[in-house]
Amino acid sequence: MEIDEIREFCLALPEVTEGFPFGEDVLVFKVVGKMFFACNLAKYPCGVNLKCEPSKALDLRDDYDGIVPGWHMNKKHWNTVLLDGSVPSDLIEELLMHSYERVVSGLKKADRQRVQEQLKS
User: Fold this and answer.
1) Within 10 Å of residue 63's Cβ, how many Cβ atoms?
2) What are phi and psi of 99, to 5 degrees?
3) At 55, is the pLDDT very low, low, confident or very high (cuts 50, 70, 90)?
4) Which of 65, 92, 107, 111 has a 20 to 30 Å separation from 118 between CA atoms?
5) Where residue 20 falls among pLDDT bands split at 50, 70, 90?
6) Bridge partners, residue 91, by sequence
7) How far is the C-alpha of 36 from the C-alpha of 52, rounded, in Å?
8) How far, in Å, are 38, 69, 81 from residue 19 at the CA level?
9) Could you read off the pLDDT of 83-104 as tens digits, one per residue?
10) 50, 95 in Cβ contact below 8 A?
11) What are the structural domains, with CATH classification, of the chain?
């Protein structure tokens, strides 16, 4: 999966914004102001940081060489997924959604309910 495909996928989700809060090379996607994705575009191969449930994060790291503890992130809650072809595209999409949903679940009740309703439609 290429970064352009990932960008399209993320921007299609409800209430997602993109920005470069950490410099011109670090692309960040947020839902209602909370980050669920970060990627240093200057690194090759590109790796994307995604939020993940802690036990699932450990299992993924055991199963895939291209999934490692989150670079510059809390290693318990974030993984870096390398876009080097070692992780299947369908799994990357699943992990993007998992990260998004983890962040949505931590939003204030009104924001969470609004976003969840938009996901259903």
Assistant:
1) 10
2) -60, -50
3) very high
4) 92
5) very high
6) none
7) 9
8) 10, 23, 20
9) 999 999 999 999 999 999 999 9
10) yes
11) 3-109 (3.90.1150.30)
The first and second tokens of residue 43, run together, are: 């690194």
Structure tokens at 7: 């960008």
What is the full DSSP assignment across the chain? --HHHHHHHHHTSTTEEEE-TT-TTEEEEEETTEEEEEEETTSSS-EEEEE--HHHHHHHHHH-TTEEEPTTS-TTTEEEEE-SSSS-HHHHHHHHHHHHHHHHHTS-HHHHHHHHHHHH-
Alpha carbon distance 104, 31 (integer Å): 7
Q: State both tokens at 63.
A: 């199963």
Backbone angles phi, psi at 57, to 5 degrees: -60, -45
Cβ-contact 29, 18 below 8 angstroms: yes
Maximal C-alpha separation, the chain: 39
Instruction: Specify the amino acid at residue 104.
Output: V
Q: Which residue type sits at 7?
A: R
Give Rg (Cα) of the chain: 14
